[in-house]
Amino acid sequence: MSKEKIFFLSFAVLTFVIYGQSLFGSFVFDDRGIIEHKELLSSLANLKEVALYPYWTEEAGLYRPTTLLSYAFNIIFLGGSAFSFHLLNIILYIGICVSIYLLVKRLFRDEWLAYLSALIFLVLPIHTEVVANISGRSELLALFFSLLLLLEFTSERVNYWRASLWMFLAIGAKETAIAATLLALIVLYIREGKVTLELVKKYFTPVSAVVIGAVVYFFLRFFVLGSEHFLGVETSLIENPLLFADTSSRIFTALSILWMYVSKSFWPVNLCSDYSYNQIPVISDFLRPTVLLGFSVFAGAIVAIFIFLKRQPIVSFGAAIFVSSFFVVSNFLFPIGTIAGERLFFFPSLGLALIVALALSKVERKTFTITILAIYAIISLNRQSVWMSEEKLFLNAVECAPNSVLSLSNAGASYYLAGDLEKAQPYLELSREIKPIYSKGLNNLGLVYWKQGNDKDALRLYHEALTQKYPYSGAIENLILLYLSRSDKEGALRWLRIAYPNADDSSLRSLF
Q: Which of 33, 349, 364, 450 might form a disulfide with 56, Cβ 3.0–4.6 angstroms?
């Protein structure tokens, strides 16, 4: 067996050792979108509709046809079990590590550096959210197809059809992959070492093909989302408070979050699935230490792109990956759907992995490198177990994000579903106390009060859940059930009319 095949086998074995447990996990949290749209995703006849479907809702401002089609193929050919979804995530992660190895080896002619780069990326604990969570599929696909695009640009003759396809599939998985357009140009520069008119002519067609792949995506995005949601995102204060902050505060907070990502990549303590309101307060002071550190890292990376382009191109390339991919999800220019998430650092972390690999490749004592890799692998193994079930995930989130409205509400919901109203109530009440606008949390607290026999407060909270900017429609059903439990059929009928506006009263009464 060749050394290269042994490398690939080691990637597969190590990935299954770390993430194999996730195969027995379930659909959790954001994965519900797959379950809710299973009928749409379960037929080959629906593939055109799937390809032109927004990523769950138009309001989210997301269009990810590659990801949705992967879900559809997953269900159609591998079955709709959580096992099959987790299996494909693991296979994609292995494919990413193999692609990193091949890219670094071809571009920098260093087999050990290539292997080390892929290994460091593989074991980073901050990746557990992406690999162990089914919804991390979009991140996996975006990086995988971006790497295929960059590998294409290391070929002697770039196939422009493949280049265009890889670009479309990458950005169609997640918008972060737009960074690959810049990275492809840097790959060409590293390969050629100069820019001449002849080289511009030589690569004009493949570069144009990449641009065309991106343009086709954005055309379809406009067609699917319309002008209102083409670039804008509609989300609440709970998901992203930076959407409602002034520009300077948004940038300062984003820089602080960048430092959090970098520090947690190398010092993976208190990894968390939730950073929503009010776990990360909005920062309006540039002189805060974390803001200054984040600014130093970002500015330093930009400078490194140019300084090391000739002397140490892998540093320049890593810095370019880091800067270009993070900028898309940074909230710098425009707010995205969330304030922060470890999954958002998946693509940028590749840049850090390359730079760290270069540093460790210079260390003569390999035991140090092996020890670091082993520690990260163990932390990743332990961390991915959190994603096995919603109960584990939500209870862990409330520990690492005790000030988050969403985490507190989800923890309360977990205890409610387990029938432990005594534990559910304080979590849900604290969530409401921090910010009483999360409609699902208000509804869940209403359910607790109803089970405790407190109909008056339950009614009030159901109404609150329906009067928020983003109302929770399930509160209507709970109002109907509450009125029926009190034998108030007229009260139930009023809400049935709202739930089924096109039905006549006789049909609605027959439901009692």
A: 33
**C-alpha dihedral, 221 to 227 to 233 to 237, nearest 10°:** -160
**CA gyration radius for the chain?**
25
Question: With contact defined as beta carbons under 8 Å apart, do 4 and 110 qualify?
Answer: no
Q: CA dist 421 to 330, 389, 424, Å?
A: 39, 20, 5
- Cα angle 88, 92, 96 (rounded to 5 degrees) comes to 170
- Do 475 and 439 meet the contact criterion of CB atoms below 8 Å apart? yes
Which DSSP state fits 230? S
Residue with tokens 């046809």: 65
Q: What is the pLDDT of residues 296-352, one digit of tens each?
A: 999 999 999 999 998 899 999 999 999 999 999 999 988 898 999 999 999 999 999
C-beta of residue 252 within 8 angstroms of C-beta of residue 217: no
Domain 404-509: what homologous superfamily? Tetratricopeptide repeat domain (1.25.40.10)
Residues 405 and 442: beta-carbon distance below 8 Å: no
Question: Residues 228-231: contacts with CB within 8 Å, 24+ apart?
Answer: 228/58, 229/54, 229/58, 229/59, 229/60, 229/61, 230/61, 231/61, 231/334
Of the candidates 134, 121, 113, the one whose C-alpha atom is nearest the C-alpha of residue 25 is 134
Select from 176, 152, 182, 179 the least CA-distant residue to 165: 152
Domain ranges (residues) in the chain: 3-387, 404-509
403-456 pLDDT, tens digit each: 999 999 999 999 999 999 999 999 999 999 999 999 999 999 999 999 999 999
- 278 upstream amide cis, omega within 30 of 0: yes
Sign, CA dihedral 200-205-208-213, equals negative
Match 């089924």 to its residue by tokens.
500
Rounded Cα distance between 151 and 380, Å, is: 28
Q: How far apart are CA 179 and CA 217, in angstroms?
A: 14
